[in-house]
Specification:
Structural class: mainly beta
Number of domains: 1
Strand content: 35-45%
Largest sheet: 2 strands, antiparallel
Number of helices: 0
Number of strands: 2
Helix content: under 10%
């Protein structure tokens, strides 16, 4: 999908488009960007 998330780091904002978000074995989300 083309969902976008915003990450704030070092006082700056980054917008990342997630191309693929698989559910890993631990049940956590990992993002391939």
């Amino acid at each position: 999908n083309n969902d976008r998330i915003q990450i704030e780091r070092d006082g700056k904002s980054y917008f990342i488009t997630i191309k693929k978000v698989p559910l890993n074995e631990q049940g956590s989300y990992t993002a391939e960007i």
